[in-house]
Write a structure and sequence with these properties.
2 copies of one chain form a homodimer. With 230 residues, chain A is mainly α. Chain A has a domain of 130 residues: Tetracycline Repressor, domain 2 (Orthogonal Bundle). In chain A, 59% of the residues lie in helices and 0% in strands. The first copy, chain A, is built from 10 helices and no strands. The N terminus of chain A is likely disordered. At the A-B interface, helix 5, helix 6, helix 7, helix 9 and helix 10 of A face helix 5, helix 6, helix 7, helix 9 and helix 10 of B. The structure holds a DNA duplex (30 and 30 nucleotides).
Chain lengths: 230, 230
Amino acid sequence: MAERTRRTPLSRDRVLAAAVRLADEVGVEAVSMRRLAHELGVVPMALYKHVASKDDLLDGMVDVVLGEIEPADPALGWQDGVRARVLSARRAVLRHAWARRAIESRTRRTPTVLAHMDALAGMFRAGGFSVDLTHHVMHALGNRIWGFSPELFEEPPRGEPLSPAEQEALVAEFVQRYPHVVEIATAATQADPARAGCDEQFEFEFALDLLLDGFERLRTAGWSSAGPGA
Amino acid sequence: MAERTRRTPLSRDRVLAAAVRLADEVGVEAVSMRRLAHELGVVPMALYKHVASKDDLLDGMVDVVLGEIEPADPALGWQDGVRARVLSARRAVLRHAWARRAIESRTRRTPTVLAHMDALAGMFRAGGFSVDLTHHVMHALGNRIWGFSPELFEEPPRGEPLSPAEQEALVAEFVQRYPHVVEIATAATQADPARAGCDEQFEFEFALDLLLDGFERLRTAGWSSAGPGA
DNA sequence: GACAGTAGGTGTACGTCGTACACCTGTCAA
DNA sequence: TTGACAGGTGTACGACGTACACCTACTGTC
């Protein structure tokens, strides 16, 4: 009886919140039903009373992250509004290192996902985009709608260290085989020697604004998929 | 002794080729070391003589797909050249339904990956792009470098069929909650009623050309990340 | 032809995973 | 008082990746 209050009952929200916290700490790939259950002081099968399957759990976790997106100030024009909302999505995703990959691997259109898409489409429409053009620009934004673009240039995980000689030989071969890759990689590092690699935030906004500017041009030109000036 | 020639020996290439074929037929998620070994008439552990781990296997499979990319005609200008190479990558990826997701989930820069990136960067450079701008446009292309953009609008897997009444209620709620999503989705279907969903190829080229045109504008303007006109 | 070295295939075993299924238990409505 | 039911338990199964010790058949050398 001393144990009366020893555990508040589980719920879907509690399970999802714990899963998100666990993934934040140890990475998604380390989140197993067994480990999550252990973390909640419960037996693995107990989770299935609140979550249909591990897939459902992952979907729910993505929803939690996407639920952190803040709506844009309705006073903003379409361009600033879309920009603000996308950047808010980006902040949400960056808060959870695993989220990017998790979103990429799911396709379920949950209410949260649909609400986000609807809000963006609504801003285009209110900004004077035709239904047709809205459709295409949503496609063009692609993953950027979630606030991320791919990890092409990310630091690779460090392997075991090589001897200086080996390393030098490797670099030399590299420069010869992939001169342009080396060129742009070193340029990026030189621009800000403090940090190797790229300023992801800059790259993201660069591409985003390039697209938004392109959208605006098509809008003012009255672009339609049926052909020019239709 | 009648069995002398019953099996040509395995090799990394044979293993990878079989894995790709198997993934084409049954999907990547169904490709396990055990099943792949079985398919090759061999015991699971035999694969490890040719492949370091399952991760290595996946990397190798991606490499096989990316190896199908054809180099662009060097006579083409940068814009047509980049366009051609990217569309060739797209064709390669579409040939293997699982490849899109597999590429997204790997970050290893294999020689094939680097060669592709180098070829693209080289075309930008030859087309008069500064190192700086080349770097940023490569980022902006993002996943499109692999010939795909995300699957936002893809058909969801069909669940169990609902009664007409249920379905109608669902649609009604949907229309009310996500009016803009419905709007653009139905527009797409009406444009070509034969097929629900979107013309992915059109959407891809739409976004690609939007970006390429934007790149060209920046190039002629002498854009630099240091600021306008630098 | 004898023989060591080695590349490549085998067999067994371990720990981990998701989850089906039968069961128990505490709460609350009637 | 009862009995339905939401929610937590325990056991078990089949699949997974892969470590490790082993065997086998071919190679080049003398």
